[in-house]
Backbone:
């Protein structure tokens, strides 16, 4: 394979086969159960094989397929434990790795961006990839001025593959849905489609990263690498030294590491808009890198990948967002419903019981009601199950709420950030962070 698999038919066929594979294994599993195998054993086998096929396929295809998998990975904490247990290993693999493209392809891509004399600028390039992403992979190198750099190289055919994958995923969303009960796949794919052009634009990504690097230059807790060069298919940044990503902390971190890096993650996500007018909108573990202190204690948090950012109209998060969270926390149902109507969360003509709306949103604002809050998998899973249970009154409210277009990316980032904090099981002064950085929340 010299680049991303380009043929729409072959890529589409592999994606279309995902729900068929799940259905086939389920039918086989039913046969095993009828033959006397314990139901839980059969279920685990089905889930394990489905996870392996699904995330192997998404990772190998890269492009929109891998982007879709990464978006799902941050919601891992919301899945029921019996479902997510066999998936977790595959999810982490997808976040941190993918099959590499050949060395010659990497060099060809660099030459197409930097020109025939690229070796005079990039004087050394490691032949092996240091990291992988949905539309590119990263190599370590050395710039002509002696700086160690990270060279992100876009896969040939990335644009075509990205759009083709997302169109195919939209078509098979209903078939994939049983693998992820309770997650509405179609809106997730639609939002990824809307952001695809920005993800492919490395100069635009370079501008965003440079703005964040400048804004956090003197911050002792957040490190954003400076941009060295941004071209059509190559983005060169200063190298960020780190032992791994947040995935390692999620898997094996101490309580101190989980709490420390969880708090820094929350502070970055909410302070970034105030400093740059942009929201880093791709909160999966591979984009955040713990940087321990010299004595091994938890240190700064490095932030990578600015291909998906929300450029906020007023250069800050909407003040109505903070106001509504505060009102919901103070339990004024009538004022809460009025505010939700003003912002378009409840459309004209839709009737709701204010008390039920308050009760529906209450658990989501729970982290803002105490000085510190510990996010856990159990907590997130409980909220997820509650809003997806048709027998609960909150389920009817969920069907009456609307998500305005202007909040789509903010909502996905918020949900992804909460997902990461829950995977970390981090305790953080969430209320104080919102009071400092979220307009409208402090009143």
Residues:
């Amino acid at each position: 394979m010299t680049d991303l698999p380009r043929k729409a038919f072959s890529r589409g066929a592999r994606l279309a086969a995902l729900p068929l594979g799940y259905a086939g294994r389920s039918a086989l599993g039913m046969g095993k159960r009828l033959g006397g195998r314990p139901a839980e054993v059969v279920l685990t086998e089905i889930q394990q094989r489905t996870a392996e096929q699904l995330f192997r396929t998404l990772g190998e295809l890269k492009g929109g397929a891998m982007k879709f998998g990464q978006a799902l990975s941050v919601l891992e904490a919301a899945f029921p434990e019996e479902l997510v247990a066999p998936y977790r290993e595959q999810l982490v693999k997808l976040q941190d790795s993918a099959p590499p493209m050949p060395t010659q392809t990497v060099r060809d891509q660099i030459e197409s961006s930097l020109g025939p004399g690229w070796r005079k600028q990039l004087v050394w390039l490691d032949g092996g990839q240091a990291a992988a992403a949905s539309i590119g992979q990263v190599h370590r190198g050395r710039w002509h001025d002696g700086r160690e750099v990270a060279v992100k190289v876009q896969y040939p055919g990335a644009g075509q593959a990205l759009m083709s994958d997302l169109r195919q995923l939209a078509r098979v969303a209903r078939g994939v849905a049983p693998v992820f009960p309770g997650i509405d796949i179609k809106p997730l794919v639609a939002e990824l489609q809307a952001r695809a052009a920005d993800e492919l634009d490395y100069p635009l990504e370079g501008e965003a990263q440079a703005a964040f690097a400048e804004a956090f230059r003197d911050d002792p807790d957040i490190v954003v690498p400076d941009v060295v060069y941004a071209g059509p298919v190559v983005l060169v940044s200063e190298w960020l030294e780190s032992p791994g990503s947040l995935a390692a902390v999620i898997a094996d971190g101490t309580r101190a590491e989980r709490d420390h890096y969880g708090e820094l993650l929350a502070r970055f996500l909410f302070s970034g808009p105030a400093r740059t007018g942009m929201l880093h909108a791709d909160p999966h573990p591979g984009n955040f890198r713990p940087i321990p202190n010299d004595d091994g204690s938890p240190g700064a948090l490095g932030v990578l990948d600015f291909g998906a950012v929300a450029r906020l109209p007023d250069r800050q998060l909407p003040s109505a967002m903070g106001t509504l969270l505060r009102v919901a926390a103070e339990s004024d149902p009538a004022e809460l419903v009025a505010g939700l109507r003003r912002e378009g969360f409840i459309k004209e003509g839709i009737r709701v019981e204010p008390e039920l709306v308050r009760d529906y949103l209450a658990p989501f604002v729970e982290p803002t009601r105490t000085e510190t809050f510990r996010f856990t998998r159990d907590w997130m899973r409980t909220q997820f199950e509650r809003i997806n249970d048709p027998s609960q009154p909150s389920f009817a409210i969920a069907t009456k709420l609307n998500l305005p277009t202007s909040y789509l990316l903010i909502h996905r980032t918020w949900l992804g950030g909460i997902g990461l904090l829950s995977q970390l099981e981090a305790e953080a002064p969430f209320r104080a962070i919102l009071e400092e950085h979220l307009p409208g929340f402090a009143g």
Residues 319-437 form one domain.
